[in-house]
User: Which sequence fits this backbone?
DNA sequence: GTAGGGTTAG
């Protein structure tokens, strides 16, 4: 090598070293400096070694670019222990414990040191492998390395994962004292967290362990931020919020981190007002807020729906943080995007997102959730495809979003695509797919998912269990839903609500209310949805007195202010029972302006009882409020048709045509041998429909012998009565039931699903059918279930 | 040690 070249290399080396020295955690430009320097090295043919190489690896690691770091590492023939340790530590904290282990065990014993052991022990802990960490600690001792304070700290971190009782905690305490590290704050902090984590195990007495932790804390000669926050977070974890607060109030020093821990505890437990109050108090006491404070408080606002408070915090941040660091900007902007979408302002959330200097998966997922939640499925779909990366949560949001918005098939397809792209579905993803089956009434498919859940060990999952209850109920198998409800290891209010609703929809009104009473007895607090369900049940079962009583108890006993939907249920209840003047009174005196749900309930009630005047009034209000809604026109024309006012029927139809409103076509479907068969009115598409027509005709003769007479008032056009009977006999629900009777094994229950309400004549016909064929026929219509058995229907002709 | 996603019920 000639002298000039050697000098040049030295000059470059000095220059690179100086440039890389500017890279430090506080410098937001670190990563781009490293990239530039690195590119320059490649261009000038400079081969980095030693310090420069290790610095480069270090900066890449600290900037989370592990790919580049590992790439550089692989180019070195014999990396030194510093390079190895840097990468082991980085992989460890990123959760790539496999890669960390690979490097560690490829490191010859001769060059290992305590530091690299420490990094690897931490790696095991990060991967929740407490035993692996302890094993490696033993290896360290066996090979004659001296554990240092970092070693003890990381080993304690691992022990925190596996300790089982107070006795073990005390033994570990003794070992720490014996090791001579009993005065080192960082080691004692780690010991504190062993106690605190053990306290949250369901097998031990948390109060006694927290007391032991408190004793340890009090005996510490020196305490740092971590000691305080460990204690507060410990109390919070164990649900002792008051103790945490007392502890915090006893602090002479006002540490932001400690306050943050308290605020996030409040948020976590749903005490949003308390969180806001603390935020205010921090201002009064002059404790400087940081990004953790902001994110927690914004989360409180988002979850409590305090939109205006959240907006104020946003404005304050914009005013006081003109040049936020990237970390600050990322976390706070994510919290802001979440605030906006949860308050129903997706477009504002998107605005925040668009202006973010850096984004991560959390940001993308927030916007996706926003679109899904707003029912803007098309935008959600394209946003989903645009995403640079996805995680379990992304898939879950999209799968359940599709299911909830009626795209059942697409939802199930996405569930399969998720698996094919290498994501193992979690219980939440299963819940989404199961709900898709519920809407599709795809019982077989739902059962298969249930079986997979059990196989994967998710059978004690609350979310999946609740989804299964709903699925079985919506597929017409209440017994399966009930059985699941009785055997689930944990239940929450959602489970109770789902089960009560299931019983109510299937006509078991008394049982539903019994379950509701049991819920109260078990001290499960009913929420607004519980009451919606209970009121619907009363309405389906015609229980006016009970309905009134429960409605009153809502605000009287449980402090839940009835919303418009609750009033709508009451109107429904009263109208069905023919109590129109009471219903009118309620509409006139209710505290909120009556909207579409109220008038719809009134109209539906009027139709049942043929109350023309009131029905027309309700319909007029609905025409004003939602002129494009097909249901109103259909109900009104039904009303006219029942009393033979065919001129008015024609007028309504013309009105519909003029406004361009189309009636949703009726369709029914049935699952046979894992395949869904769909039928439309007067179907000619289904390949086997002719056989169904023949069978129904044959069945019709037997039914007539038992007294069945086609009820032609359910035909809405004015035509000859023979023709009317023909139209009735081609209704989609009759075809689906006929197909089921033909195809399903003898004696098996026939389960048919219809998008709209069942027609009155079909309802009557199925009663006779169930008697003739001696089988149970279950029909789910747009509103509820009908179980036909021995000539009777579970709805008691009240629907 | 403190934050920023999800799910199920009408």
Assistant:
């Amino acid at each position: 090598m000639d002298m000039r070249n050697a000098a040049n290399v030295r000059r470059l080396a000095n220059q690179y070293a100086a440039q890389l020295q500017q890279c430090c955690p506080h410098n937001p430009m670190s990563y781009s400096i490293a990239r530039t320097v690195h590119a320059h090295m490649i261009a000038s043919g400079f081969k980095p070694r030693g310090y420069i190489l290790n610095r480069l690896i270090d900066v890449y690691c600290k900037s989370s670019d592990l790919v580049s770091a590992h790439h550089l590492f692989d180019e070195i023939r014999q990396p030194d222990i510093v390079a190895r340790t840097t990468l082991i530590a980085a992989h460890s904290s990123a959760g790539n414990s496999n890669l960390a282990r690979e490097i560690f065990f490829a490191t010859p014993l001769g060059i290992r040191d305590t530091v690299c052991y420490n990094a690897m022990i931490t790696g095991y802990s990060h991967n929740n492998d407490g035993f692996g960490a302890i094993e490696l600690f033993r290896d360290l001792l066996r090979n004659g390395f001296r554990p240092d304070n970092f070693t003890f700290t990381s080993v304690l971190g691992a022990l925190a994962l596996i300790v089982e009782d107070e006795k073990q905690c005390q033994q570990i305490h003794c070992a720490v004292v014996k090791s001579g590290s009993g005065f080192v704050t960082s080691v004692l902090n780690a010991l504190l967290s062993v106690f605190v984590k053990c306290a949250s195990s369901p097998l031990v007495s948390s109060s006694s362990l927290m007391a032991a932790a408190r004793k340890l804390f009090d005996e510490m000669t020196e305490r740092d931020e971590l000691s305080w926050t460990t204690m507060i977070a410990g109390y919070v974890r164990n649900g002792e919020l008051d103790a945490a607060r007392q502890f915090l109030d006893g602090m002479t020093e006002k540490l932001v981190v400690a306050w943050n821990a308290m605020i996030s505890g409040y948020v976590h437990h749903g005490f949003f007002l308390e969180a806001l109050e603390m935020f205010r108090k921090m201002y009064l006491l002059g404790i400087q807020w940081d990004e953790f404070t902001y994110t927690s408080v914004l989360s409180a606002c988002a979850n409590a729906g305090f939109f205006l408070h959240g907006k104020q915090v946003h404005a304050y941040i914009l005013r006081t943080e003109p040049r936020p660091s990237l970390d600050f900007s990322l976390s706070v902007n994510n919290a802001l995007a979440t605030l906006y979408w949860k308050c129903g302002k997706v477009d504002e959330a998107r605005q925040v997102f668009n202006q973010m200097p850096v984004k991560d998966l959390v940001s993308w997922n927030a916007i996706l959730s926003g679109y899904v939640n707003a029912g803007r499925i098309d935008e959600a779909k394209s946003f989903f495809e645009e995403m640079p990366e996805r995680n379990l949560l992304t898939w879950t949001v999209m799968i359940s979003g599709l299911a909830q918005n009626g795209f059942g098939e697409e939802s199930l397809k996405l569930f399969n695509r998720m698996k094919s792209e290498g994501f193992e579905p979690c219980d939440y993803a299963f819940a989404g797919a199961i709900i898709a089956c519920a809407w599709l009434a795809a019982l077989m498919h739902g059962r298969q998912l249930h079986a997979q859940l059990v196989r994967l060990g998710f059978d004690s999952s609350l979310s999946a269990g609740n989804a299964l209850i709903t699925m079985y109920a919506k597929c017409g198998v209440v017994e399966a839903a009930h059985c699941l409800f009785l055997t689930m290891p944990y239940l929450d209010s959602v489970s109770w609500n789902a089960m009560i609703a299931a019983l109510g929809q299937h006509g078991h009104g008394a049982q539903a209310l019994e379950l509701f009473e049991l819920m109260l007895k078990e001290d499960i607090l009913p929420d607004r949805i519980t009451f919606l369900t209970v009121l619907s049940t009363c309405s389906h079962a015609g229980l006016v007195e009970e309905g009134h009583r429960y409605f009153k108890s809502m605000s009287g006993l449980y402090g839940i202010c009835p919303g418009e939907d609750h009033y709508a249920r009451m109107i429904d209840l009263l109208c069905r029972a023919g109590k129109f003047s009471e219903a009118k009174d309620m509409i006139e005196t209710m505290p909120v302006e009556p909207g579409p749900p109220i008038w719809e309930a009134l109209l539906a009630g009027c139709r049942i009882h043929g109350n023309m005047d009131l029905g027309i009034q309700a319909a007029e209000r609905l025409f004003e409020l939602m002129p494009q809604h097909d249901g109103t026109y259909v109900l009104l024309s039904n009303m006219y048709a029942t009393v033979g006012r065919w001129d008015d029927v024609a007028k309504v139809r013309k009105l519909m045509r003029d406004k361009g409103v189309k009636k949703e076509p009726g369709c029914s479907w049935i699952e046979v041998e894992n395949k869904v068969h769909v039928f439309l009115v007067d179907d000619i598409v289904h390949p086997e429909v002719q056989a169904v027509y023949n069978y129904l005709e044959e069945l019709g003769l037997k039914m007539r012998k038992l007294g069945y007479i086609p009820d032609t008032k359910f035909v809405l056009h004015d035509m000859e009565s023979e023709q009317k009977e023909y139209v009735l006999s081609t209704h989609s629900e009759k075809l689906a039931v006929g197909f089921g009777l033909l195809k399903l094994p003898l004696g098996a229950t026939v389960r048919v699903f219809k998008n709209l309400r069942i027609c009155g004549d079909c309802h009557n016909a199925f009663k006779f059918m169930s008697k003739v064929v001696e089988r149970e026929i279950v029909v789910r219509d747009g509103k509820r279930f009908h179980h036909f058995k021995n000539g009777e229907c579970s709805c008691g002709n009240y629907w």
In short: The CA atoms of residues 338 and 366 of chain A lie 6 Å apart. The two ends of chain A are 96 Å apart (CA to CA).
